[in-house]
Design brief:
The chain is of the alpha/beta class. The chain folds into four domains: 65 residues, no CATH class; 68 residues, no CATH class; 33 residues, no CATH class; 118 residues, Type I PLP-dependent aspartate aminotransferase-like (Major domain) (Aspartate Aminotransferase, domain 2, 3-Layer(aba) Sandwich), CATH 3.40.640.10. It contains eleven helices and six strands. The chain has a four-stranded parallel beta sheet, with helices on one face. Strands 1-2 form a two-stranded antiparallel sheet. A hairpin with a 2-residue loop joins strand 1 and strand 2. Helix 2 packs antiparallel against helix 3. 14% of the residues are buried. The N terminus is likely disordered.
Amino acid sequence: MIIHKTPVNIFNSSVYSSRSLQEQQNTVRQLRRDLLRQSQSTIQQSASPIRVMARMVAELEKQCRELNIAEEVLRSEIVNRTIGDVDLRRITECEGEPVGLGDYRLLADELGVALPNEQLHGYVASGETYTWLRDQMQQCEQELLRQEIDLRVYDLQGVGNPILRSWLAIEMQKLGLFVSVEQLYLALGAMDSIDKVFRGLSQIYREQNYTTSAVLFPEPGFNVPEWQARSFGYQLYQFRTRAEDHFKLTAIQLDDILQQAPDIRIIYLTVTNNPTTFAYTADELTKLFEVLRKYWESGREIHIIADLAYIGTTIPGED
């Protein structure tokens, strides 16, 4: 992506900090217009426009900070509604008491992001969760070394940290998901996980001598896995869900699709949809599974890649 370079004589950072807030706002708006104009073709050609937009926002923030734009101007002029992790250190919202219920500044501390005694918009973090996580990490590594496993030595089998895998298996079993350590693998985030699953299944299908393998993508939905699947040579079937079904794939629709497309071997299913936010109920999922079970019993294996990105964000019983 070509980045606009603003003439130094106009935006000299040593001079710029003395300019009025209105002038700074005008500059941010001009930079934003320039980025939009220069990135237009990239957005249209990209397989994942939302990621291009996320990079644009990051680039805009970077340029503004290089120009010493005031933080209050950045907060008023730049709102990142694209994609990515929430920067908990930048949360300033606080309701009611300065520290307590409704104080969202505590999130960075509670989730182990904030360091001990870190200043967060008037709140001093304890760093207790951060310290606890560091302690857990050291305990895990000490246990690995006792088992003569050194994570700094190349993992020939590519199975990852066995201690962490066993801990995760125990936690999943507590939730009623009876998976063994041997069935659980590690990856660096969702994109890495999905990439590895598509790659592994494509190898399995080649060994089983399938000439074509296809993935079903109910839409609208998170589209990055589509170009991941395409890069591994899968055929893509994109089914547009309906508003009257709350943009969810129904059991009847799934059965009809599978009858018409015998090469579908994978379904990418976002249990809580991005971007529609509608979530499948337990009953709806059960009906989808009943359809798949019918095909499994007839000898046709169909895997689900279940995107559980938003698990834990609703009422626990419903979740």
